[in-house]
């Protein structure tokens, strides 16, 4: 085998049309061996030391290696857990930059770097070779015919996000070919595209598609890591969704969704890896350079600082780890044309020596990057470490999941008192959280439900979680769901209870899509998808976790039409979009919002302090001279409330454009001073009429 020194400047395996350059970072290694395998991945055909080391990057160029070659690494160095080093050349390691994986991962004790011998678990060096049961990297040719692909570049103020799982969205779609269901390509099938277009959403956010592992304890229970928050490789698309060629299948899917006008955002997990805590397997990062890749306890580097609840945390304060994350993000934008990212447990990415800091290297690197600074960036602004809850603390340019919106809306619509002040703030962009450092209302990603927790159908059908199928005796998942079953736990045939549940779902969907900020809709909520009370379906790769589409077209259960109307209202009435903050009467200008009592008088301090109030109404001024004002009336209480139509500027008539009360009938045009009942548990919206 011919070998040249190659270059350290492109990490990973890089095919240049004539040969392949291999480069691997390890600051503490003593030798790095490249291991080549036969096409089946079962026989190691070559083991060659990388000939050069430059600035802690081990590298070599191989003119005889072409795309399709399977490979891995064996890294030599000290096995000294008490010093933070866990090198073990008997373990085949996956290249962190591998863009495609081959082979089937088979759990065995050979993947662990130690023998378990009583209390001396991670001290006893293990010499079993794990190569046969380990996945391998594959050298790839990144070429792909993108044609005239153009990103939709949907402005933030027009964005409506649809969060979904690649497999879960289509696995139970009877109108798709069986071999297509659950794959990348199914996302861009005509049936799914038509549904997304009917809804009116602009952006598809996919749960993790980076290559991930099924945890050993799940495999032993006959379960899988369905959601995918257990990353093994940050550059390779997960194979289980890709049929024969996952990388090209994913690129084709992005191309097709772009052509249909949809953005694609990836949920990414750079806060931890699949290697777990100090007792976990040695699969990649741990064996390449444990002390560099992970946060270790300063006074006991045998152990990990775990801010994520998964056993380990990636240390982005190390320049090479930060480089890997930045390289990965750029790869998905430049090579796969994705339009943005949602960062799981993003507080971990912003941790420095003294805790979370919005000025740390990761945020600075993203802000100045010419590729990443122009895509959508969304933080899940918490982790489980000390000081981990950081909603509102991320830098300008970022948007954040706003769980305070979820809490407020769930509580208000199940009838809790003393909520109108909180709801008012959440409906208008959560200025108390995000209005600082020049940030705009689009900083708030509003949601009622997401993958983690109850679906909307379950929020209105279950008072308690029911996670027994996860095999953890119902101990997993949140105990505080702010849900209501409206009289019966779970399924019922009681028509009155069913109508209460449907009304609550309509109200929460309307709240979500009428609120300023960026709305995020959980896939399946529009067809009343249920997970049977499971609020932590991370391991349910079955009918529990997949979307049940039987509600589509079913009276009372299919709310696709409601969602479509609400999104159309957002497009028509620009004051519903998060362009700018609302100031009321400040600055001597005409008011951009007026909060009104049922008598149509402007609310005073005493009106906000009324503890039993459930009625909230306000007028939003148009954003330009060609628009009309909107009058929004919310009644979260159990009794009807009479209200008076206001006069606003020169507008003296109002036309009903939305009402969630199914019994709504009669007049649709009202004049200022006219009275009407706000039905219990309902939202009505009126537009100014000439």
Describe what you observe in this structure.
The protein has about 700 residues and is of the alpha+beta class. It has 3 domains: about 1-140 and about 275-315, Immunoglobulins (Immunoglobulin-like), CATH 2.60.40; about 155-270 and about 320-575, Glycosidases (TIM Barrel, Alpha-Beta Barrel), CATH 3.20.20.80; about 585-690, Immunoglobulin-like (Sandwich), CATH 2.60.40. The chain contains 15 helices and 33 strands. Strand 3 (about 30-35) and strand 4 (about 45-50) form a beta hairpin. Helix 9 packs across helix 10 (about 420-425) and helix 13 runs parallel beside helix 14 (about 560-570). The mean pLDDT is about 95.
Could you give a short description of this structure?
This protein has 690 residues and is an alpha+beta fold. Helix 9 crosses helix 10 and helix 13 packs parallel to helix 14.
Question: Which key phrases capture this entry?
Answer:
690 residues, alpha+beta, Immunoglobulin-like, TIM Barrel, 3 domains, 6-stranded antiparallel beta sheet, elongated
Indicate the topology.
Elements: E1 12-15, E2 20-25, E3 31-37, E4 44-49, E5 52-54, E6 57-62, E7 70-76, E8 79-80, E9 85-86, E10 101-102, E11 136-138, E12 161-164, H1 166-170, H2 184-187, H3 190-199, E13 203-206, E14 210-212, H4 216-220, E15 231-237, H5 246-259, E16 263-268, H6 285-293, E17 296-297, E18 300-304, H7 319-334, E19 340-343, E20 351-352, E21 355-356, H8 361-368, E22 376-379, E23 399-402, H9 403-413, H10 420-427, H11 431-434, E24 444-447, H12 456-459, H13 495-514, E25 518-522, H14 560-572, E26 593-596, H15 605-608, E27 615-620, E28 630-635, E29 641-644, E30 653-659, E31 669-671, E32 675-678, E33 682-689
Parallel strand pairs: 12-13, 12-25, 13-16, 16-19, 19-22, 22-23, 23-24, 24-25
Antiparallel strand pairs: 1-2, 2-6, 3-4, 3-7, 5-6, 7-11, 8-9, 10-11, 14-15, 17-18, 20-21, 26-27, 27-28, 28-33, 29-32, 30-31, 30-33
């Amino acid at each position: 085998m011919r070998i040249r020194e190659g270059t350290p400047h492109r990490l990973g395996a890089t095919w240049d049309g004539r040969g392949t350059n291999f480069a691997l970072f390890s600051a503490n290694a003593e030798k790095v061996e490249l291991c080549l395998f036969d096409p089946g991945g079962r026989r190691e055909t070559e083991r060659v030391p990388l000939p050069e080391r430059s600035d802690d990057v081990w590298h070599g160029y191989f003119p005889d290696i072409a795309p399709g070659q399977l490979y891995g690494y064996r890294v030599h160095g000290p096995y000294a857990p008490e010093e933070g080093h866990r090198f073990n050349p008997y373990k085949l390691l996956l290249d962190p930059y591998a863009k495609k994986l081959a082979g089937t991962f088979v759990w065995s004790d050979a993947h662990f770097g130690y023998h378990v011998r009583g209390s001396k678990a991670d001290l006893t060096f293990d010499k079993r070779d794990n190569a046969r049961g380990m996945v391998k990297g594959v050298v790839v040719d990144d070429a792909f015919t993108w044609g005239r692909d153009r990103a939709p570049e949907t402005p933030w103020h027009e964005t409506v996000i649809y969060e979904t799982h690649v497999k879960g969205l289509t696995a139970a779609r009877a109108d798709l070919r069986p071999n297509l269901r659950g794959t990348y390509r199914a996302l861009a099938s005509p049936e799914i595209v038509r549904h997304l277009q009917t809804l009116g959403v602009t952006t598809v956010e996919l749960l993790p598609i980076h290559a991930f592992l099924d945890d050993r304890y799940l495999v032993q229970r006959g379960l899988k890591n369905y959601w995918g928050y257990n990353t093994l490789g940050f550059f390779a698309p997960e194979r289980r969704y890709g049929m024969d060629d996952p990388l090209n299948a994913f690129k084709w899917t992005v191309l097709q969704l772009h052509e249909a006008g949809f953005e694609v955002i990836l949920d990414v997990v750079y806060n931890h890896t699949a290697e777990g805590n100090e007792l976990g397997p040695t699969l990649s990062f741990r064996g390449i350079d444990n002390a560099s890749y992970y946060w270790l306890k300063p006074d006991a580097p045998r152990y990990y600082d775990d801010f994520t609840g998964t056993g380990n945390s990636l240390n982005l304060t190390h320049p090479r780890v930060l480089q890997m994350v930045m390289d990965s993000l750029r790869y998905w934008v430049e090579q796969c044309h994705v339009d943005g990212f949602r960062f799981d447990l993003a507080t971990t990415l912003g941790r420095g020596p003294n805790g979370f800091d919005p000025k740390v290297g990761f945020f600075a690197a993203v802000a100045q990057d010419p590729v990443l600074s122009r895509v959508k960036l969304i933080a899940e602004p918490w982790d489980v470490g000390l000081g981990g809850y950081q909603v509102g603390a991320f830098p300008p340019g970022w948007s954040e999941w706003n769980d305070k919106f979820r809490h407020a809306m769930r509580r208000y619509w199940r009838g809790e008192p003393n909520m109108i002040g909180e709801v008012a703030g959440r409906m208008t962009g959560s200025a108390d959280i995000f209005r600082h450092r020049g940030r705009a209302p689009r900083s708030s990603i509003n949601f009622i439900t997401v993958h983690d927790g109850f679906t909307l159908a379950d929020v209105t059908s279950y008072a308690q979680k029911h996670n027994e199928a996860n095999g953890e005796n119902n101990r997993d998942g949140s105990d505080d769901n702010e849900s209501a079953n409206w009289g019966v736990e779970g399924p019922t045939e009681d028509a009155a209870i069913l109508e209460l549940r449907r009304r609550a779902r309509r109200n929460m969907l309307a709240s979500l899509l009428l609120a300023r900020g960026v709305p995020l809709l959980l896939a399946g909520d529009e067809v009343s998808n249920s997970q049977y009370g499971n609020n932590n379906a991370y391991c349910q790769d079955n009918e529990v976790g997949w979307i049940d589409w039987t509600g589509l077209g079913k009276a009372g259960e299919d709310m696709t039409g409601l969602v479509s109307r609400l999104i159309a209202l957002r497009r028509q009435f620009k004051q519903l979009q998060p362009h700018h903050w609302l100031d009321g009467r400040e600055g001597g200008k005409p008011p951009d919002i007026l909060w009104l009592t049922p008598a149509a008088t402007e609310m005073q301090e005493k009106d906000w302090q009324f503890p039993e109030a459930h009625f909230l109404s306000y007028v939003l001024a148009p954003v330009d001279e060609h628009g009309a004002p909107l009058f929004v009336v919310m009644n979260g209480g159990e009794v009807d409330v009479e209200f008076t139509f206001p006069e606003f500027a020169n507008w003296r008539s109002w036309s009903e454009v939305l009402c969630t009360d199914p019994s709504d009938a009669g007049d649709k045009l009202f004049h200022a001073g006219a009275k009407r009942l706000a039905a219990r548990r309902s939202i009505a919206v009126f537009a100014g009429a000439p």
